[in-house]
Amino acid sequence: MPAAEGRIWTVAVVGCGIGRGHVAAYKIHPDKFRVMALCDVDEKRLATVGNEFSIGHRTRSFDELLRMDDVDIIDICTPPALHVAQILAALAAGKEVVCEKPLAGSLAEIDQVIVAEAKAAGRVMPIFQYRFGNGLRKAKRVIDLGIAGKPYLATVETAWRRKPKYYETPWRGRLATELGGVLLTHAIHSHDLMTYLMGPVASVFARTATRVNAIEVEDCAAASLVMQSGALASLAATLGSHREISRLRLCFEHVTFESSRAPYSPSDDPWEIIPASSATATRIADALSGHRFLPSRFEGLLSAYHEALATGGALPVTLADARRSVELVTALYHSAATGTAVLLPIEPDHPGYRGWHYPPTAP
């Protein structure tokens, strides 16, 4: 057994908005992680989260965290525009890094992080916690075993509600700080789940609009995709739905899958797994007969993360996963800006490679 197997890894969480949920998740695993410090520019928020979870070391200085020898992991939950600089600084300081989505604002930035990680002692784990849900895990097993057969079609709906109060937080809704809207900040998880199950994307055509709130970024979007397998996919996302749902429906040759509709836990049970025949139903039952219930979302992700840290094995979510997500986002925004279909992969000479923060030039 590796010496690190029973180690408790120490964590500093940066950003106490979204970061509050991370702190709560670490607290579920007291035998694996200990939150040593919090960092936030907002003194009131820093005090509130620190008091709630009895975390004594609080600072407004990110650099102070980097100098703390008793911190193993820097967990970054700051506004998206800050992520890359903070990741690079944490890697340079010899830390392990956890970072919220979106990891970066361009493929060029992610490639910079990949190069830095290869030279560093620590690694970077992007956050895609919705990959950890029992409904999704069952579907993934059926697909990976070849039982589902050829993929035909996927539809993904992200229908959430965000009112003006949500955008009172100064960095939200602004391109310079949030980097994007519903495609980047909200639907990114469901789109990751779709590609996790359906495989890589070959081409994208998208439309975006800002119709719900007076903000700089999009709050409605629709897209048509062709997957590398030849399957088709449609994506629809809005922040103007009066009933919030997240839903994935995946049609394969032998099986149709439909996710839970819960807006913030689409990977959890119940998932419908609908076989085309009794023979397929038997194969599915056999494949899932030994399924063991696994913790969902952050609880499951952090369990897998601790195991990877302890053994040196592959991280449960990798920079390659984050890169595929940002590549899809890049294609969606470039298509919407130019009115053209975008082919993947996106190479360094593509106008969108360095980001969608400027009006793209049509190819």
Considering the chains and any ligands shown, give keywords for the structure.
Dihydrodipicolinate Reductase, domain 2, disordered C terminus, 363 residues, 34% helix, 23% strand, eight-stranded mixed β-sheet, alpha/beta, six-stranded parallel β-sheet, Rossmann fold
Strand content: 15-25%
Low-confidence stretches: 358-363
Widest sheet: strand ordering: 13-12-11-7-10-9-8-14
Number of domains: 2
Distance between the termini: 54 Å
Which CATH class of the largest domain?
Answer: Alpha Beta
**What is the CATH topology classification name of the largest domain?**
Dihydrodipicolinate Reductase, domain 2
The general outline is: globular
How many DSSP E strands? 14
Task: Give the helices and strands as they follow along the chain.
Answer: EHEHEHEHEHEHEHHHEEEEEEHHHE
Overall description:
The protein has helices at 19-27, 43-52, 62-66, 83-92, 107-119, 134-144, 175-178, 182-186, 188-198, 278-288, 297-311, 319-338, and strands at 9-14, 33-39, 57-59, 73-76, 96-99, 124-126, 151-161, 201-209, 220-227, 232-238, 240-252, 255-258, 272-275, 342-343. The chain has an eight-stranded mixed sheet. A six-stranded parallel sheet has the order 3-2-1-4-5-6, with helices on both faces. Helix 5 (107-119) runs antiparallel to helix 12. It starts with 8 loop residues before the first strand and ends in a 20-residue tail after the last strand. 34% of the residues lie in helices and 23% in strands. The chain folds into two domains: 3-129 and 299-316, Rossmann fold, CATH 3.40.50; 131-294, Dihydrodipicolinate Reductase, domain 2, CATH 3.30.360. Strand 9 and strand 10 form a beta hairpin. The longest helix is centred in the C-terminal third of the chain and has 20 residues, at 319-338. The protein is of the alpha/beta class and 363 residues long.
